[in-house]
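Complex record, two chains
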Amino acid sequence: MTKELKSKLVKNAAGRYVPAVVNGIASIPFKGVNKYRPDNSMAAPPVRTCADYPSDGNKLVKNLKEALKKVGLKNGMTISTHHHLRNGDGLTNVLFDTIKAIGVKDIRWFPSASFPCHEYLIKYLDDGTIHHIEGSMNGPLGRYATDGKMKGTGILRSHGGRYRAIQDGDVHIDIAVIAAPSADAFGNANGVNGKSACGPLGFALGDSEYADKVIVVTDSLVDFPCVPWHIQGNNVDYVVEVDSLGDPSKIVSGTTQVTKSPDRILIAEYIAQFVEESGIMQNGFSFQAGAGGINLAFLLLLKERMKAKGVKARFIRGGSTQYLTEMLEEGLTDYILDGQAFDTEGVRSLRENPNHVNTSPFTSYNFHGKGNFASMLDAVVLGATEVDANFNANVVTHSDGYLLHGIGGWQDCLFGKCVILAIPSFRDRVPIIVDNVTTLCGPGEMIDVVITERGIAINPLRQDLIKKLSNSKLPIRKIKDIQQEVYELCGGKPQQPKLAKDKVAAVVQWVDGTLLDTVFAF
Amino acid sequence: MTKELKSKLVKNAAGRYVPAVVNGIASIPFKGVNKYRPDNSMAAPPVRTCADYPSDGNKLVKNLKEALKKVGLKNGMTISTHHHLRNGDGLTNVLFDTIKAIGVKDIRWFPSASFPCHEYLIKYLDDGTIHHIEGSMNGPLGRYATDGKMKGTGILRSHGGRYRAIQDGDVHIDIAVIAAPSADAFGNANGVNGKSACGPLGFALGDSEYADKVIVVTDSLVDFPCVPWHIQGNNVDYVVEVDSLGDPSKIVSGTTQVTKSPDRILIAEYIAQFVEESGIMQNGFSFQAGAGGINLAFLLLLKERMKAKGVKARFIRGGSTQYLTEMLEEGLTDYILDGQAFDTEGVRSLRENPNHVNTSPFTSYNFHGKGNFASMLDAVVLGATEVDANFNANVVTHSDGYLLHGIGGWQDCLFGKCVILAIPSFRDRVPIIVDNVTTLCGPGEMIDVVITERGIAINPLRQDLIKKLSNSKLPIRKIKDIQQEVYELCGGKPQQPKLAKDKVAAVVQWVDGTLLDTVFAF
């Protein structure tokens, strides 16, 4: 039962109902894109002094338990972790075993994301060690929250939104625990070296900058200086050496897989053709495509088109894979600007190639900065679980009501110059273009094109694109026509889940910290 | 006439008299090394929103005047600049010409350092455009301040102390103007590319992070992304393109010169022998030596000793020169950790060699962080203008009373494990080992060894070093004996300048922001 059961629901500017109070704190309902104006100051950590830190730079303590005691772990604290180890993360489970053993309760766990491997932590949600999760819940923990079992309310933020929440002081982290594939005893750390190498460590950057106490945990301790220092030792309190951070085979893939589904390959072809015919694919352009099966197929197809036309990109945004690194090495882009690496080639390239550049949610996505990289992208290709006829989209819940995915950088990327949703028109006989998205994650005004295997719908707000593609042989259609066709094919609209309309499992923040929508529980 | 003329002078823990109020703000007298404990929070800049910045990332405005108007330049503001362009800086003079033309007055100029090229600005100190300077004053501006002509009181901080003052909110920067040898229109910038390439840009890091408004000025505008981004565009408001930032031949030397003076070469030999015989020179050691003539000679001599013994350093701290980069390239060190480059080879190596690593006053020197690099150094070789028989040292004024040098990283480096002052025993017939230093910059307890051409004095606090060197053939002597010999040689003690003992030209802060000493005016 959540605390917010009786919290008043208020209607926001998107017409969605959101709780007025979340986990005891008054919320700000979504006011519209670019409408909310912050008037506060950034979080201000206490001033430290070197007099309190070892002058030889050696911050090693014998184990995680000792580190947690030294930083003053207490009931009710907020503890953050990052998800660069993805489904191979072993450390977070050990962290909560340790907290349980110490006997501390009511922790607000603030991960950048949780994965199926963290299903292990359900016992600690049940027994009160963890009070609630603020962060992406991929899979089992999202299901747990949707079943109404979590004591507090989940708060879902994009990657940029999470950095913003830390920077703005919305979330005060008491203790950040940073898994580091390579680190020195001073706390300098990176993710490009070591047996658990994962690529960038940017999801933990804000944690390292603003948390009261920072513990770096590594399974590959190197002599000072650990270079590059994507996490800076100057922000770190203690360093712990462990045998293993997790399962390297689940941290990064040996290879990432391109889709083999004919429908999905067709979608990828449509995207590539659209990007070329719309005039986006020209010398010096930029794009971001992610690492899903459709996206990788799109990359290979776009690459052929770029080669055929002699076009070179200025930069491509990661998550990186071998398909991106090949483009860099073949001279099809000047730079990869990378926030996470999905396969071993991505990690290797980031380690070795100075034009494969480490980025963070601060540089790429933070909406409360002086600009960010996302809005400069000429094209972004994203997925979605649902979209409606007004181009409003969902990326966290399925039509059955279950919260099963995080937002990732999805919302942040909506600020790109041309936002393309690449989606199959149905999944498991469930139509994807719906009357009303289960959860609103992205306002339709920000989504320019929906590309399915049955046709391409351009948002009427983008008359410029419609005009540019007016002579195209691409199957450009009205979104309602595609929707209707799929409804007929699948035997009608998706069934509505029987959610309690006053029982809040989680809320979805917009990039500016206002509440965009509510995930209701069963 | 300074405001502080009538400010009460109070005696601090070092026995020096410092003003209780500086530029209208109550000061904290020095309390002893590691004794002052901060209890405040860091500076908290206002939260910004991308809604206020161009979504295409293009922050270019047509000229500096327009940028200054857009950021709201007003009387009495604090404007910061950095000194990576050293005596080749043309931008700062143009900046104040522009401020004068706009008609704004009473600027607090907060440079990381000023150089002889800034003598041009005396007219703006005279006419009230600049109220006073807080920052190193090398040469003419220091002379101007010592002559009692500056309206406010100069505040001298070390490189780390300056970062600390910004971070801690002691100095609120209204407008940071950052000269950038390479930048993109978003504001990402570095100093390793472009015709005015100077090496690192770390002295401007704190300014970019904490200033209300940040203007990047470049004479080499590149397409986004400018990589590496030592200054991050996410912290930048406006970008201005100009024809030239200054005189490249005075920004970095073509080559840096090793001393040819036999006395100074002898000092260099003594240092090298001391570093070897004390056991400091062993595999994995680290040191910092700077770029003065003696220091470079020491580097060459140490290099021979390292080769002869098969010893490799783990890291050497810059400022970098060709002598350091050769050691890196010959495998005599794993890393150069560099804060500034003094010659073109230093710049080239930083640009090309991933083991030549960019650092900043945050990583290297900030005393109000969770440790810093300086205290981890096995040996540092520093200069001084004066030292007394208790090893107290001066680095800013000469015995004639004139303020002619900045502190640089000198105070920060005193936290190294073995601090060696390498000084000729006299200069222009003026003895350097004095009864009482004109200005106290470094407490004697932090200085381990004084090496002159007439002998080596080890601080009695370092009995461990005295014991290690007990069988050495080095001329190890009592500091008072060397002092006496030089007094006799030079015809007695230096003449005392006729300074007004109640007229404050500038104050010297300790690394923690407390006042260590006062520079009195004539």
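Note: The radius of gyration of chain B is 23 Å.
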